[in-house]
Design a protein that fits this description.
It comes from Desulforhopalus singaporensis. Helices cover about 55% and strands about 5% of the residues. With about 675 residues, it is mostly helical. The protein has five domains: about 100 residues, no CATH class; about 80 residues, no CATH class; about 120 residues, Fumarate Reductase Iron-sulfur Protein, Chain B, domain 2, CATH 1.10.1060.10; about 160 residues, Rossmann fold (3-Layer(aba) Sandwich), CATH 3.40.50; about 130 residues.
Length: about 675
């Protein structure tokens, strides 16, 4: 019958040593993981809005076992990771089966064989060998990606090659042990060695050699394999890159299910009165989830390679933000050794300048396979810099003052807020309310569309669309103030809270069913930020409404627009709020308009460079994010159309429109930029 002797060729003393080493290894691993857990629990407690139920566990298991977060973005890297992970999983399961067979059924119950015999044993040998081969293949691909293909985001530190090489040696020595056993027992096997393809290959290389020599080599390599395996397992909690094997799955399970990019409300006045800290100043301010993020990072660099600030050459890497926190954590709260002195985060491992370059686009969050959130940490560091240390770019001063004094970052007088509407019959909300009525849509124009001469065309186009479709709407006029989004993302939480409270109080006086915005930043504030201030609204972006109006045949688009267009996904419309299809559905209905996608689109679209307050930030000419994005748009259009066809970038955000136009001006091209509302207004039938 097909079977094999477990611990063949190992003496009784060797068996005793094996169990001793296994016990020591298990003790070291448990102690190390316990110390890691203790470090994470030193963070501020986290309250999860959803209970930790089976559904969350099931989702986490599926995510981890499918490698969905890796495969969806990077096919080669994801396939490599899948091979390594499943190779280890199957080999660990196989080792566990062998241990149960030997320790329980053989040693305790006294059965010669229970599971590992007959067809089950043959299937066991075949499956474990195949997955062992896949493990070796995955490790070889990992080394090739790093050192032959030279992926720019991959580092080249010692641990970056030691770890995969160690694992590769462990896997290969495992096959060598099997091959030597098969060769030494060739005449006594009760089955074809081909059921163990990896071992059979090596057995064929040494077949015919002296059996005594094969047995001696088997013992030597068996001990090498055991010592390396136990050593790698024991080191797991103490090598950050290896620790992600445990921590990443836990981090995925504890995913923050609240809206991405959301910031917690702060009691700013109370904190000042109590002389408390705001934002993140030291490691003591980080939450338990933040510290779990730090421990879980595998240093893959996907956040860095997708960060628009980093791509444009600025001194910001989301990976280095997380790894800087890890270095500080290892110094101040080490797994082993003496704790270090507490330091201010931006004086320790992270550059204060770097946190100001973040556009809050959330590309780092979207691209992380371990669901780590560098953005939340950057924003909390920025809050501390702005409110506690009064440090922020000089150009922000006038923006914040204008928002505080006049209710808009352009520092324009409120009486000029309706200048954009001259020549249009636009109902004012106060007048509608005075007549005892309400509206279906409160059209929140936003500061950019009200005061920026170029962007006023978006508001005017939207009015034409609303009136053509017969929508019952009104605007606030001079009562409208900035939502405060830019102030909050700049780190000035107090000013944001003042704006939010004033707006919520003012909006409570009027009757409306929905708030309609043309600015994704306003959309995001109303839908995600304002509920913490008592403002619960049904918020609609203009692309959503226009798309619905076309589907309901309340808008007729008959005028052809002969052009090749590429759509730029606004970060706050797309990644932050998952609105990707509505604008594309609209463009598909415009007669004559041809569209082509940029290489980076939808979830992986690249920022215009204006988010997080950076519309008012003076960038170096060779580090402008919008220039990179315009270049991507131009490449897409030029590839898909002839030089004679007019080309354009279509946007759905006033800030994106401004940034794209600045980039186009610097490029000196015939390509133009238009908001999607402008195109629809142009295509509306004049009948």
């Amino acid at each position: 019958m097909a079977t094999r002797e477990i611990l063949w060729n190992i003496s009784g003393i060797g068996e005793a040593v094996l169990y001793t080493l296994a016990a020591i290894t298990l003790g070291v691993v448990c102690w190390g993981i316990y110390k890691q857990i203790r470090r994470v629990l030193k963070g501020q407690p986290v309250t999860f809005p959803a209970p930790l139920r089976a559904g969350r566990l099931g989702k986490a298991i599926v995510t981890v076992l499918s490698n969905r977060t890796v495969l969806n973005r990077h096919k080669l890297g994801g396939s490599m990771h899948l091979l390594i992970m499943w190779g280890f999983i199957v080999l660990i399961i196989g080792t566990t089966i062998v241990a149960i067979e030997y320790d329980l059924f053989h040693k305790i119950i006294g059965m010669e064989h229970f599971m590992l015999q007959g067809w089950f044993y043959l299937a066991f040998e075949l499956v474990t060998d195949i997955f062992g081969i896949l493990l070796v293949a995955g490790l070889l691909v990992a080394l090739a990606r790093r050192y032959l293909l030279s992926r720019p985001q991959l580092k080249h530190q010692r641990v970056d090659w030691v770890l995969p090489v160690l694992l590769l040696v462990i896997a290969v020595t495992g096959f060598m042990v099997e091959g030597l056993r098969l060769a030494a027992n060739a005449s006594e096997l009760g089955y074809a060695p081909g059921w163990s393809p990896g071992g059979a290959l090596l057995a064929g290389l040494v077949g015919g050699l002296d059996p005594a020599g094969l047995k001696s080599a088997h013992v030597a390599i068996w001990w090498l394999h055991v010592l390396l395996a136990f050593g790698a397992i024991a080191l797991l909690p103490f090598v950050p890159k290896a620790m992600h094997l445990v921590a990443a799955g836990v981090n995925i399970y504890f995913e923050d299910l609240r809206p991405k990019g959301r910031l917690a409300k702060l009691d700013v006045e109370g904190a000042f009165e109590r002389d408390e800290n705001l934002g993140y100043e030291t490691l003591a301010d980080l939450t338990q989830k933040d510290l779990l993020d730090v421990v879980s990072c595998t240093e893959c660099g996907r956040c860095e390679m997708n960060c628009p600030a980093n791509i444009s050459g600025k001194n910001l890497s989301p990976r280095e933000i997380v790894l800087g926190l890890r270095r500080q954590l290892n110094t101040e709260i080490p797994v082993t050794g003496t704790p270090g002195e507490s330091r201010r985060i931006l004086d320790a491992e992270i550059s204060p300048e770097s946190v100001q370059f973040c556009t809050t686009c959330m590309a780092c969050v979207e691209s992380c396979p371990a669901l780590i959130d560098p953005l939340s940490k950057i924003l909390e560091l920025r809050r501390n810099e702005t409110m506690i240390h009064d440090r922020f770019p000089d150009t922000y001063g006038d923006v914040l003052m204008g928002m505080e004094k006049r209710g808009n970052p352009w520092n324009e007088h409120p009486t000029s807020r309706m200048d954009w509407a001259k020549g249009f019959e636009v109902p004012i909300m106060a007048e509608v309310a005075e007549a005892g009525k309400g509206v279906d849509y409160l059209f929140w124009v936003g500061c950019s569309a009200a005061y920026d001469p170029r962007n006023t065309k978006i508001a005017q186009s939207m009015v034409k669309i609303l009136q053509t479709a017969g929508i019952n709407f009104a605007v606030l006029g001079e009562e409208e103030r900035c939502t405060g989004d830019a102030a909050r993302r700049m780190g000035q939480e107090y000013l944001f809270s003042v704006q939010a409270e004033m707006n919520v109080e003012m909006l409570a006086e009027y009757k409306f069913d929905h708030i309609l915005t043309i600015c994704p930043h306003c959309y995001n504030s109303f839908s995600k930020d304002y509920p913490d201030f008592g403002g619960e609204y049904s918020v609609v972006h203009h692309t959503e409404l226009i798309s619905d109006l076309i589907k309901e045949q309340r808008l007729s688009l008959t005028k052809a627009i002969d052009a090749m267009a590429t759509f730029h996904d606004s970060c706050y419309l797309g990644r932050h709020n998952r609105i990707f299809d509505a604008p594309r559905d609209i463009l598909a209905q415009i007669p004559g308009l041809k569209t082509v996608e940029m290489e980076r689109n939808r979830e992986m679209g690249m920022c215009c460079g204006g988010g997080g307050g950076l519309s008012w930030f003076e960038e170096e000419t060779d580090q402008r994010v919008n220039d990179r994005r315009v270049e991507q748009a131009a490449n897409a259009v030029e590839t898909a159309s002839s030089a004679e066809t007019p080309s354009m970038i279509v946007t759905s955000c006033p800030f994106c429109l401004t940034m794209m136009e600045d980039g186009l001006a610097a490029r000196e091209t015939t390509m133009i930029d238009k908001d999607i509302a402008e195109l629809v207004a142009e295509a509306i039938s004049s009948d």
